[in-house]
Hints:
The structure holds two protein chains of two kinds. Chain A is an all-alpha fold. Chain A has two domains: 2-53, no CATH class; 75-252, MetI-like (MetI-like fold, Orthogonal Bundle). Chain A has helices at 2-10, 20-50, 69-72, 78-111, 117-129, 132-146, 152-177, 180-188, 193-222, 225-230, 237-244, 251-283. The model of chain A is unreliable at 1-23 (pLDDT under 50). By secondary structure, chain B is an all-alpha fold. Chain B has one domain (73-300): MetI-like fold. A two-stranded antiparallel sheet of chain B has the order 1-2. The longest helix of chain B has 42 residues, at 72-113. The radius of gyration of chain B is 24 Å and the shape is globular. The interface between A and B is large, with 101 and 103 residues.
Amino acid sequence: MTTIEASTATAPFARPNPVRPKIGLGRWLLPTYVTIAFVLLLIPIVYTFVFSFNAANRSNISWNGFTFDNWLNVCSQADVCVAFGNSLIVGGVSTVLATALGTAIAIALVRYRFRARSAISVLLFLPMATPEVVIGAGLAAQFLTAGISKGLGTIIIAHTMFCLSFVVVTVRARVLSLDPALEEAGRDLYGSPTQVFWRITFPLLLPGIIAAALLSFSLSFDDFIITYFTSGTVQTFPVYVYVAAQRGIPPQANVIASAVFLIAIAAVLVFQVVAAARARRRRA
Amino acid sequence: MALTALAPAGAGSSGAAPERRRGGLIALALLTPGLAYLALFFLVPFISLLMTSFGINVPDQYGVFDYGFRWENYVDVIAAYWPQFLRSFWFALLATVFALLIGYPIAYYIGVRIRERTLLRNLLLVLVIAPFFISFLLRTLAWKQILSDEGPVVSVLHFIGLMGPQDHITGTAFSVVFGLTYNFIPFMTLPLFATLDRLDKRLLEAGSDLYASPRQTFFRITLPLSLPGIVSGTLLTFIPATGDYVNASQSFLGSSSTAMIGNVIQSKFLITVNYPQAAALSILLMAVIVVIVSVYVRRSGTDDLL
C-alpha cells in the first residue's frame, strides 16, 4: 500500500495497475469473513449428521459412542418412519397440484393480455408476503368454520396453496425467456396450436417446470408452521420433530434428515457435473 | 404496491394478432383453476379469520364462540400482548440486519469476486443452499445443544471467565435472534447473489479508473446497483422472521420471557383454543406487516416484487 501511495504522489497519472493493490486489505479480509460465515452455516448440519451415529435411545443429547444401528434400523422408531412417509405423500401430491396450477397461470400471465392483471399479481404475491402463522391460522379457522376435520387432506390443501405462488414466479421467468420466434416458426410450418404447445413450448419450458417442482417439494417437505395448524393428529416429519423436541428426539430422526440431505446434495452435484460436461462439449 | 413487473413479452409480434380473439378463452381456462384455488384457500380463510376475530367466546365453554362484532377483542389483545408484538418486530429487525451483514459479503464474494472461478463458485453456491436440504427444526435443535449449559460454547466461556456460573445462552433474547439470523441467512443471500451476479464488473473498473477508492466504488456503484437484491432479501427475512415461533419457543432457543407474537397465536389457537383472540392477533400482525412492507417498498423505489 505505501509504495503505491508514494508512486501516485509523484506521478498521479502513471498508476501501473490501479485496481489490484487497492484490494490489498480486502483480499484476505473478505475470504476470511466468508469462510467463518460458511463454518457457522454448516456447523448444525455436521452436528445433525454426527449425532445420527450416536448410540442413544430416546433423547439424543450427549455423545454415548459410535454406532451404525440407527442407520440400519431407522424404522425401529416407527413413528419417525410414519412421519417421514406422510411428508413424502404430502410433498408429492401438493407438488404435482401446485406445479400444474401454477404453470398454467404463469403461461397465461406472460402470453395474454387481460384486465385484472394487477389484481391477479397482488393475489399471487400476497401468500408469499404473509407470515406463515397467519396463513396457518386462517386455514385452521376456515377448516373449523366449514367443519372439515384436519388430516393429510388438509395438509395437502395448505401446501398446494403456499407452493402455488412460488411455482408461478419460477415458471414465469422461464416463459419470459422463451424466444417467440420458435413458436412462430412452428405456426408457419402449419403446426396446430396444440402441436406447437406440446412440441415446442412445453419442452422448452420443462427445465423451469422441473425447477418449480423441486422448489415446491422442498418447501413442502420442510414446512412446519402451516402444517402444525392444519395437521390435526397426523404428523409430518417436521411436526414429529417439533413434538418430540419436548421429550427428546431419537437419533433415527437425524438419520432420516441426514439421508435426505445427502441425497439432495448428491443430486445437485451430479446435476452440476452433467451441466458442466454438456457446456464443455458445446464449446468443443 | 403496483406489481408492474409482469410485463407482456413477445405478445406484440404481428403473428399473435389473430390469436388474440380466441386468447381470451384460453387465458381464462389457464387462469381460472389456480386463481380459484388461491381465492378458496387464501382469501376465504382470510375472511373467515377476520370474522373469527370479532367473535364472542361462549362463557364456560372451552373453544366455543359465536360470530358477532366484538371489536374489543382487538383492544384486549393489544393491551395484553403489545410486548410480544414489539419484541417480534425488534427481533426480526435485528435478525434481518445481522443476516444482511453476513449474507452480503457471501453473495459479493461468490457473485463478484470469484465469478470467473466456476468450480469454486458452484461449490460455494451449493453450500449456501445446503441448509435448505436438512430440516430447519433439527438445525435449530443442534444450535440449542451446542449453546446449552452443558455444551462446548458455554463451557469455554465459563472457563475464560466471560460468563458467570449463573449465565445462560439458550433461552435468552440473544439465542433467539441468533437462531433467527442463522435460519434466514440463505433467504437473504440468494436474492443478493442473484443481483450481484449480474453486476457489470466494468462499472467497478470504471469507478477505480476515475480514482474512486474501493470504499467509494462500493458505496457509489456496487451497493446502489444491488438494491433490488437487498430489498427482496430483507423482505424474505423480515416477514417470516416476524411470524416465526420455532426459534423463540421454549423447547428450542427461547424461554417464556422471549415469546414472540407467533408463540402467542400458536398457543391461543392450538392450546388454549381462544379462537377470537388468536384471529385478532393474526389480523393485527398481517396489517402491521402490510403497512411496513408497503412503506419500505415505496421508499426503496422498487415496485417490481414479482
